[in-house]
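Provenance

Sequences were taken from public entries as deposited. Structures were produced by running a predictor on each sequence independently, with no templates supplied. The record for ADP ribosylation factor like GTPase 10 from Gasterosteus aculeatus is shown for reference.
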Amino acid sequence: VLVLGLDGAGKSSMLQGLTPGGWAAKRGRCRPTRGFNFVSLNAPTCQLDFLEIGGGEDLRRYWSDYLRKTHVLVYVVDSSDRSRLPMAKAELHRLLMVQPQLPVVVLGNKQDKPNAVSVSELHEALSLGSETGDRPPAPARLIPPSQSREVGIIEGFLLLPLPHCEMIAYLRQRRRKR
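Predicted structure for ADP ribosylation factor like GTPase 10:
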């Protein structure tokens, strides 16, 4: 699973929420990713690997190099930064031009901020489901993180057209224990 998004969107925070201890143990300790961040989740019969690449302008040019070996793209967007939504859209659509059939989960992050756009506004701002040139609509799902961020991520994975092994059940079980 490749995790991308502009710098400051919340990619690292989202990944921290999937690790043991989650957000509670690491609140306020997230730093900008200067390169790569790798998280592996292990369930009894499968493993799900997440590769996050930093969202700084200097790193974005390398994003498309990783698409060929990617099964799923998780694209994280800062819903509260209206001024950067056009840039987030441009970067997402640039990626979809390289791999137009790649399943995408878009996480509308920071929905709790006062200036955040609604899910429908974000869907429109990113032109999800619209045709770009001669390409068919991207197979994208927009998921707003709920009060428990992990729930939104799990919902996103449930919508993916991929075999999920036992990872979703494992994440749900872990969430119930919290």
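The first strand starts at residue 2 and ends at 4.
The domain at 2-177 is CATH 3.40.50.300 (Rossmann fold).
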